[in-house]
Amino acid sequence: MSQQVRKLERAVGAELVDRSTHPVRPTEAGARFLAEAREALAAADRAVAAVDRYRRELATTLRIGFMTASAGPQVRGLIDELRREEPEAVVRLVELPWDRQAASVRDGTVDAALVRPPVTDRAGLRFDLVRHEPRVVALPVRHPLAGRGAVALAELDGEPHVTGDELDPVWVRWWACDPRPSGVPVRYGPSVRTMGEQLEVVAAGQAIAITGGFVADSHRHPGVVFVPVSDVEPCPLSLCTRTADRSALVAALRHALRAIRPRRDDPAATSRS
C-alpha cells in the first residue's frame, strides 16, 4: 500500500499523507485528493449502473416499426399475445417512412416491422405472413365509379395514378399495378409523400390511388371513397425481422404471431433471405 501511495504522490506531484504522525494522516493536498477521488468513484459506480440499466432495458424492450395505418387490430392482437408470453416486455411502436420499412429492420433502427410489398432487398431478413389484405382504389366522391361495389382493374385504365418522386420506382409501379394486363400504359399524376397528401390529391380529382384495404379501414376523408378492385391479387402484410436475430423477445414475437394467425393462412408462410 505504501508503494502505491508513493507512486500516486509522484504522479500528482505532492505528498498526500503526513508520515510523521502515527497513524498517518492525509495532508491538505491528500484531503482534497481524497474528496475528489470519492466523488469520482461514486460517479464511476453511477456510470456502470446506468449502462447496466440500459442493458436490461434492451433485453426487455422491443421496437416494432409500422407504416401509416398499419398499426391496426392485427398489431394490437400481436402485442397482447406477446405480453401474455413476456409480461415484462416493453413495446415501442415506431412509425416508418414508406421507403424504409424493411431497411429499418436491417440497420437496427427497429427490431421488427410490419411490411408490405414490394421489398426489393430481402438479404438478411425473414418475413412471416400476418394476413392478406384486399386492394382497393381511392376515388374522388364524384367519380363515375365511386358508387360501385367493386371495379375491375381495366376500368381504371387511363386514370392518372398518384406517384412518389422520392420512392423506389418499383414500389410505385407495384401499387399502381403497372404494367396492366390490358397493356394500356399507366399515366402518373402528382407526387405524394404522405397518406394525407395522397387523400387530398384524390379528393381534388387529380389522380386515383390503388392501395390496401387497411387504408380504407383506418382513414376517412369526406371527399374520398374506397372501392374494392376485384381482379388484383391481395396485399400480404408480413412481420419482418432479421434472420440472424436470436434474441428472446424477437423469438417470442414470432411465436406470438403463430399463435394469433388465422388458421386460413399457411402457418408455415415464412421466407428467409
List the helices and strands and how they pair.
Blueprint: H1 2-12, E1 17-18, E2 25-26, H2 28-60, E3 61-66, H3 73-85, E4 90-95, H4 103-106, E5 112-115, E6 125-133, E7 135-140, E8 161-163, H5 169-176, E9 188-191, H6 195-203, E10 209-212, H7 213-218, E11 224-228, E12 235-242, H8 248-260, E13 270-272
Parallel strand pairs: 3-4, 3-5, 8-9
Antiparallel strand pairs: 1-2, 5-12, 6-12, 6-13, 7-10, 7-11
Keywords: DNA-binding, Transcription, Transcription regulation
Protein name: Transcriptional regulator, LysR family
GO molecular function, one term: DNA binding
Q: Could you characterize what this model shows?
A:
Helices cover 36% and strands 23% of the residues. The protein has 273 residues and is an alpha/beta fold. It folds into three domains: 2-56; 58-133 and 236-272, D-Maltodextrin-Binding Protein, domain 2 (3-Layer(aba) Sandwich); 135-228, D-Maltodextrin-Binding Protein, domain 2. The strands form four sheets. A six-stranded mixed β-sheet has the order 4-3-5-12-6-13. The chain has a three-stranded antiparallel β-sheet with strand order 10-7-11. It has a two-stranded antiparallel sheet with strand order 1-2. β8 (161-163), α5 (169-176) and β9 (188-191) form a beta-alpha-beta unit. α3 packs across α8. The longest helix is centred in the first third of the chain and has 33 residues, at 28-60. It is elongated, with a radius of gyration of 30 Å. Belongs to the LysR transcriptional regulatory family. Keywords: DNA-binding, Transcription, Transcription regulation.
